[in-house]
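Hey, can you fold this one?
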Amino acid sequence: MIGLLRGIILQKQAPDLLLDVNGVGYELLASLTTFIDLPEVNNEVTLYTHLIVREDAHTLFAFSSIEERALFRILLKVNGVGPKMALAIVSGMTANEFAQRVHNNDVSGLTKLPGVGKKTAERLIIEMRDRLPEPSEQTQIDGLTQTPTMRNLEEEAIAALLSLGYKPTQASQMVAKYSSAGLSVEEIVRKALKASLG
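Sure. Predicted structure:
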């Protein structure tokens, strides 16, 4: 499974993205939320990915945050929701907004998403209520049952930097400056990377 790619953006036209990773061009389908976060063409970007293998195609989906990818993966487990609809849902609202609508039984709010009718919205609420944490507890859907502590956030941020090729001591030092600032894992990693590059 390809979980993360870091490379140079060669082309971008929503939802299609072409990323050069050490001379290999990866074609990706990205959510609109991710597209908004992308830098201009010829700039480097790090994206979290999910690979879907079918008989006729291998499709790589790209997300700017772990939370967004986690929501996409949970949506794929819902009966009747395929990759196209899951991508439309994560393009239409944040993971926290989606969790709030599910827990509030907000059928009309969910039907505003492209391709989601009343029956699909009701199915999403029934099937996802137990899979999503209460919005107030949610910082990262990957953790589903965990409420975040400063230690968890710090460890996750360090793990993210290790996956990008930094050494353990270097990653710890980079994260230490931001771990007590009340930031999310994604914000800690972004600030740490910005500081090390700048």
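The radius of gyration is 17 Å. Let me know if you want another pass with a different chain boundary.
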